Every structure is written in structure tokens, then in C-alpha cells.
């Protein structure tokens, strides 16, 4: 299939997915009880306000400030159109323009996610391949055990312990430690175990294959043997690479950024949910879907490169 057709197909699927997800989020936040409004009403009543007209005025002012004083279908059409045109309006909580707010937060998160992802792929593939090709070696077994241990330990516990040892331990680390080094380490720990497991499992399928025995019989180095195995195991591993990363990182970023106070994508979405800041939440959803579509396109393109026998369609 032509790469342009693949790109167009994935873009169409992304638009359909975006519509379903955005509509679902819009419905959940507009058709359910508004806890922010309930809190304001509760504070008014706690302060002694019991006049129904005054409480109704609070509701009317709240809905007007959020643009929800119009027919719901009209509000839905306007906001959905704004999502498509990237005119995401302003945050209901802070009043800042949503598009640069979301982009800045995503860039801040990428500053520690991308290095962690690269390290996890390199280390995970290396450890998994060594463990599959040389199961008798202690290096491979120890690497697998360490990776699984890091994978099993809760991220919030690892982060809390690191924070405790640095702050409560009377250490005075530079800001780089909390802003980049520790977040990279926690995201790396969340991803490493999965990559070790996948690369080890898929490499073991080819470790005893005839072509591997032939390569070894010719006196090839361990590096050349591993390269042959990884080339054949690359497609099933690569198909899980992006999915695993997206799933784990979406969860990890919330923990990491809430723990270290990083003004990134996860913390922005947490605050948006707490404040029912629908423009920010919908804009963040568009970014997540966009990353997913781009990742799927890259996967499709990579299949043909990794194995020319695979039809790109």
C-alpha cells in the first residue's frame, strides 16, 4: 500500500477515534453532577445563604462563566468545531489560552519521557536478548531479575523514597535532580520490565533456530548473532513497543508530576479534572490521540523496513 494511503487511512481512523472520545468526555462532564458547582453552593449555604433565588443566581453565574447557559447541542457543536480547528479557547480555571498551555505542558513532560523511553528500549532489548541467547549466564539472569523488581515496585513508592533520601536526608541536590534526573529514572523503571520481558520472549523463539546455529557455526560474534535474532524478533516486539510505552507513561506521568510538582502534561490534566476545566481536558485528549495516530503510522512504516516480506497494507 502506498505510504500516503496509509497516512490518510490512519488520519481518518484518528479523526473517528477523536470524535468518539471527545464526545464521551463532553457528555461525562456536562451530563453528570458538577462537583465544582456543588462546592460553591455548599460554601454559600455554610455561610448562611439559604435564599433559593440567591442560590439560583450562583448557578446561573457559574453556567454563564463557562458558556453552558446555551442549549447543550449548541455548546457541543461549538466546542467540537474548536477542537478540530485547534482553536481551543481559554482555560476556565486560569483564563490562559488552552493551546499553548497544553503544548508547553506536553513539551515539559517530553523532556523526561523521551530520554527515559530511549534508555528503556536500549537497556530492555539488551538485557532481554542476552538472557534469551545465554540463559546460563548470570549477567542475563541478574539483569532480568533487577528489571522485574523495578517493574514490580510502585512508582509512587520509589519516588517517595528518592524524595525522602534527598530532602529528609539533609541533602541539597540541584534542581536538575528533581526536574529531570529522578523523573527520568522513575519513567525508566516503569518501562524497563515490560521491554525486557517482550524482547526476551520474542528472542527465545529464534535463539534455537537453524539460521542462528548456522551463524554461530560460521564463528560469528555474539553481537552478530544477536543482530540476526533481533532482526527477526523486531516486528512482534516493535508492535508492542509503542502501545506499552503509551499505556505505562500515561499512568506514570500523573504519579511523577504530582510527586515532584512538575508542571507537565499529567499534572495539567489532573488539575483540569479537579476544576472541570473542559477546554483543557479536551485539548489534552486531542494531544494523546494525535500521539497515538502518529505512533501507529510509524509502526506501519517500520514493518516494511524491518521485514520486506510484510505487506504494508
TrEMBL record:
<protein>
    <submittedName>
        <fullName>ABC transporter permease</fullName>
    </submittedName>
</protein>
<dbReference type="InterPro" id="IPR035906">
    <property type="entry name" value="MetI-like_sf"/>
</dbReference>
<feature type="transmembrane region" description="Helical">
    <location>
        <begin position="12"/>
        <end position="31"/>
    </location>
</feature>
<feature type="transmembrane region" description="Helical">
    <location>
        <begin position="280"/>
        <end position="298"/>
    </location>
</feature>
<keyword id="KW-0812">Transmembrane</keyword>
<feature type="transmembrane region" description="Helical">
    <location>
        <begin position="110"/>
        <end position="134"/>
    </location>
</feature>
<feature type="domain" description="ABC transmembrane type-1">
    <location>
        <begin position="124"/>
        <end position="311"/>
    </location>
</feature>
<dbReference type="InterPro" id="IPR000515">
    <property type="entry name" value="MetI-like"/>
</dbReference>
<keyword id="KW-0472">Membrane</keyword>
<feature type="transmembrane region" description="Helical">
    <location>
        <begin position="146"/>
        <end position="165"/>
    </location>
</feature>
<keyword id="KW-0813">Transport</keyword>
<feature type="transmembrane region" description="Helical">
    <location>
        <begin position="177"/>
        <end position="198"/>
    </location>
</feature>
<dbReference type="GO" id="GO:0055085">
    <property type="term" value="P:transmembrane transport"/>
</dbReference>
<dbReference type="GO" id="GO:0005886">
    <property type="term" value="C:plasma membrane"/>
</dbReference>
<keyword id="KW-1133">Transmembrane helix</keyword>
<feature type="transmembrane region" description="Helical">
    <location>
        <begin position="237"/>
        <end position="260"/>
    </location>
</feature>
<dbReference type="Pfam" id="PF00528">
    <property type="entry name" value="BPD_transp_1"/>
</dbReference>
<keyword id="KW-1003">Cell membrane</keyword>
Amino acid at each position: 500500500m502506498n505510504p500516503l494511503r496509509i497516512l490518510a487511512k490512519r488520519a481518518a481512523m484518528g479523526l473517528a477515534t477523536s470524535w468518539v472520545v471527545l464526545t464521551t468526555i463532553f457528555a461525562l462532564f456536562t451530563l453528570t453532577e458538577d462537583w465544582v458547582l456543588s462546592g460553591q453552593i455548599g460554601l454559600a449555604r455554610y455561610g448562611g445563604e439559604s435564599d433559593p433565588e440567591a442560590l439560583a443566581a450562583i448557578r446561573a453565574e457559574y453556567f454563564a462563566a463557562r458558556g453552558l447557559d446555551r442549549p447543550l447541542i449548541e455548546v457541543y457543536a461549538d466546542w467540537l468545531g474548536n477542537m478540530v480547528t485547534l482553536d481551543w479557547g481559554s482555560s476556565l480555571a486560569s483564563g490562559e489560552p488552552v493551546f499553548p498551555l497544553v503544548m508547553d505542558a506536553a513539551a515539559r513532560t517530553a523532556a523526561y519521557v523521551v530520554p527515559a523511553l530511549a534508555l528503556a528500549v536500549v537497556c530492555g532489548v539488551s538485557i532481554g536478548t542476552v538472557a534469551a541467547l545465554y540463559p546460563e549466564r548470570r549477567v542475563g539472569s541478574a539483569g532480568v531479575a533487577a528489571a522485574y523488581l523495578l517493574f514490580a515496585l510502585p512508582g509512587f513508592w520509589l519516588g517517595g523514597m528518592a524524595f525522602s533520601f534527598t530532602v529528609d536526608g539533609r541533602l541539597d541536590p540541584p534542581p536538575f535532580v528533581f526536574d529531570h534526573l529522578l523523573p527520568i529514572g522513575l519513567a525508566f523503571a516503569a518501562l524497563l520490565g515490560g521491554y525486557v520481558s517482550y524482547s526476551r520472549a520474542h528472542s527465545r523463539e529464534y535463539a534455537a533456530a537453524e539460521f542462528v546455529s548456522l551463524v554461530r557455526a560460521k564463528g560469528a560474534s555474539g553481537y552478530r548473532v544477536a543482530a540476526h535474532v533481533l532482526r527477526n524478533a523486531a516486528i512482534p516486539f516493535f508492535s508492542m513497543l509503542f502501545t506499552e510505552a503509551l499505556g505505562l507513561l500515561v499512568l506514570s506521568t500523573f504519579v511523577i508530576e504530582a510527586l515532584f510538582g512538575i508542571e507537565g502534561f499529567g499534572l495539567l490534566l489532573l488539575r483540569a479534572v479537579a476544576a472541570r476545566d473542559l477546554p483543557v481536558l479536551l485539548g489534552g485528549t486531542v494531544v494523546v490521540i494525535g500521539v497515538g495516530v502518529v505512533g501507529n503510522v510509524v509502526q506501519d512504516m517500520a514493518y516494511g523496513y524491518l521485514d520486506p516480506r510484510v505487506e504494508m497494507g
